[in-house]
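Technical note accompanying the year-one report. For the benefit of new consortium partners, we illustrate the data format agreed upon in the data management plan: each record pairs a sequence with a structure-token string. No post-processing was applied to the example shown here.
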Amino acid sequence: MKVTRRDASRQIETGPSSRARAVDNAFLERTVQLFEARTGRSLSKEEARQIVENVSGFFRILAEWHKMD
């Protein structure tokens, strides 16, 4: 995961699909708050990033299946 000099509040990551994705720190904080409230345990920003990646991957797969139908 790389932090650009241009915008330190965004983290650039490369996923399995080899496309760069920008994950905003504010979005990660909101993700942490949402899942902490629902799970009752504290989460790290890395765990929040993984949650975002997994959920977006899930919807990406659903979209691919929809295209195939």
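Partners are asked to follow this layout when depositing records. The longest strand covers residues 10-14.
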